[in-house]
Amino acid sequence: xxxxxxxxxxxxxxxxxxxxxxxxxxxxxxxxxxxxxxxxxxxxxxxxxxxxxxxxxxxxxxxxxxxxxxxxxxxxxxxxxxxxxxxxxxxxxxxxxxxxxxxxxxxxxxxxxxxxxxxxxxxxxxxxxxxxxxx
Length: 135
Prior knowledge:
- By secondary structure, the chain is mainly beta.
- The chain has a single domain, classed as CATH 2.40.50.140.
- It has one helix at residues 60-69; strands at residues 8-14, 19-22, 28-41, 47-59, 75-87, 92-105, 122-124.
- Strand 5 (75-87) and strand 6 form a beta hairpin.
- The longest helix is centred in the middle third of the chain and has 10 residues, at 60-69.
- The two termini are 34 Å apart.
C-alpha cells in the first residue's frame, strides 16, 4: 500500500496560555498544551479519570488567531498531524507534538442581543508546508 495517513482530531482544554513567537523569516508560530480526558470504571467498579496532555503547534495566521482568542482553559476542537521537529544544525530531534491545521473554538461567547449563545467560528491553516522551523 503506497498511501498512509497521519491525522489527529482532538477535543480538549488548553493547559496554558498560547505562546506566539516568530521565526527569523517572520512566520508566526504558537505553542500550547491541550488536555483530553476520559472517564472509565476499573475492575472494582471505581470511576477513574485519565488525562492525556498533547503539545500543539500552530503556524502563520492560525498561530496569530490562537494567540488572540485562546487562553488557558479554552475548549477547542482541533485537527492536525503528528510532527517531529528536528534541529537542522545537528539533526537531533527537538520536539514531537501535533501540528494543528484546523480548529473550532468551542467556548461560549457572551450572550448576544437575541439571547442566544453562539460559538466562535472555525479556522483553517491554508499552508501545508513549514520550511522555516523555529530552531
